[in-house]
């Protein structure tokens, strides 16, 4: 489980160190940095798949994503050191950090692509020299082998590749492999489509689907998988709690699956194409949260979108039900959802880590109620 998330120089997140627990709810007014926090987590996940540099490039590169203010806003000072966008996390078992910087000009058309300058992994919640498991500086990597010795690469790592994706060898870097696979298990759901042309509204060829796809096109197969090999009882409860007296079934014709919602008083079931945006979105969240294959981390961005206020309590129940099996981060605008989550979590004996983001007078994102650097988890960045 992640216990600390650290971000530096990413959009309004000049320096943000956030404690995380089993269930986390991130709130704040518009423009306070909630979306940036969500994107920072996604960038960390992209690093494990070798796609962080491309993801930053799609956001406009470092020029667009770097914190635009001074290094020390209170003193009105500029930058004293090399420019870097830093992302990292740590838990009781592992920690990881990456530092992106500008490339050395070479005349290439790719000179605007950010480069990975430094990466490090370590054992435990805080980076210490004795705890380092692997370290990358420029093209060179050293990793601690299974017998405790150090293996050093010949400096062949390319500046746009992460050591997570290139050096996860079970013999030479077993800890790096475990960390990579943990990060690759993370899942993100952000504004899944429910419009008239949404993939979730169409029939699709069905195969066993323990993990709902990001576009929701395999919703019917995912729900049928829950019914057959997952927690079918919780699925029934979730549907009835949101739509009293209703039940779900999945039809199949020629191998193509179709969702059918049976509602009290109707002579026939409704297909996905006939459902309201809110009803379909709730069923998408149900499939994501009741997955038979829980991820190491599940991040939901504004799950309340398109939902009627009456659906927020059953959605909160779903989230709290999933939390014992997976760490969850909910980024939300809805204070009603945050309140429902807190009430239900307390009833279930589960704490909620409420993180309210605000902006200070210099435009930096901060955690509300934090009085100073000592009022946050300890954190150290690897040096270039």
From TrEMBL:
Top-level taxon in the UniProt lineage: Bacteria
Name by which UniProt lists this protein: AAA family ATPase
SUPFAM superfamilies in UniProt: P-loop containing nucleoside triphosphate hydrolases
Keywords: DNA damage, SOS response
InterPro entries recorded: ATPase_AAA_core, P-loop_NTPase, RecF-like
Residue intervals of the ATPase AAA-type core domain: 23-334
Organism: Streptomyces marispadix
